[in-house]
Write a structure and sequence with these properties.
1 helix; 3-stranded antiparallel sheet; mainly beta; 6-stranded antiparallel sheet; about 5% helix
């Protein structure tokens, strides 16, 4: 598994989703608060709904812009809290396509697509 992963979320039928050919995920949805986090975190990214770059890792990396702290497991997924956004969101079991276990902390950087 990579230390740093990159996906390109976009909106499909008003829902944040992403595709990742390497993991076999197609239109994998962000729900239960993560979608709202993405709305807030991408507010300053032009045309984010058409796609943006999301870099993420269980370890901090230079210039990360969002930190999520693990709260609890539920329904095979995991709830994370963002101090920056003052809210929590649920990441589904697709998380385990990128990590063997739910990380205690996730670090992310959201930016426009190149």
């Amino acid at each position: 598994m990579n230390t740093i992963s990159v996906i390109f979320p976009y909106k499909f039928n008003s829902q944040w989703v992403f595709d990742d050919e390497t993991t076999g995920l197609v239109r994998e949805a962000f729900i239960a608060g993560i979608d709202t986090m993405l709305d807030r975190a991408t507010a300053q990214i032009p045309n984010a709904s058409s796609g943006f770059k999301l870099v993420f890792s269980a370890s901090p990396f230079p210039n990360y812009t969002l930190k999520l702290d693990w709260r609890r497991e539920e329904y095979g997924g995991n709830w994370y809290w963002s101090d920056t956004l003052c809210m929590e969101g649920w990441l589904c079991p697709a998380l385990f396509k990128y990590f063997e276990a739910a990380p205690a902390t996730l670090f992310a950087k959201l930016e426009p697509k190149a």
